[in-house]
Amino acid sequence: MISAISAAAMALSLISPVSAAAAADTNPPDRITVDVVTVNGSGCRPGTAAVAVSPDNSAFTVTYSDFLAQAGTGTAATDFRKNCQLGLRINIPQGFTYGIASADYRGYANLKRNATGVQKASYYFQGHSATGSRTHTFYGPTDDNWQATDTTEVSEIVYQPCGEKRIFNVNAEVRVMAKADAPTSFMTMDSIDGGVNTIYHFSWKTCP
Fold first, then answer.
1. CA 165 to each of CA 97, 202, 208: distance values in angstroms, whole numbers, following the listed order
2. 128 DSSP 8-state letter
3. Separation in Å, CA 140 to CA 92, 144, 177, 187
4. DSSP bridge partners of 34
5. Which residues contact 114 (CB under 8 A, 6 or more apart)?
6. Residue 126 — φ and ψ, nearest 5°?
7. pLDDT single digits (tens) 55-93
């Protein structure tokens, strides 16, 4: 298995930290729900992305079923990059707020010699144009599962302001670079084995 692990913090300094909030000892006891407000992108055509919250409210998942980029012989010029932007309304109990502590991604890469695959994701709250992002690069030749993790240092996690409801946006992409006459290479971020392929881990705080 090939992997890329980023120990650097996601640059999510998009809004002022919630200084009045305190780290929660446990996850909220009431059920968390996530509403998909917007879905846009070539990697998530209607019906090919599903969102769910873990039973213990520690994370939410996004599962894609048609997220594939490819390049090389027989591919179209637009096939080399696929992306998906999701606008999510995360409904949380009163008295709590959340940030994203880490994000896990996985998929499959069939990259021929001299081909390169890239996975990238950016994150931001509604009303703020700045984004934090992380990029993971994979090199051919390889024909295997891939995985990547973005991790935020505890002191740098940014939380939704207490008492406000803002859409949380996630923009994910995969791309493949190869010569036009080279053998076809591809990279997916989809659920080819029926499992979850992206997990976003919450960090919780209590609000006054």
1. 10, 16, 16
2. -
3. 43, 10, 10, 11
4. 90
5. 140, 178, 179, 182
6. -50, 135
7. 999 999 999 989 999 999 999 999 999 999 999 999 999
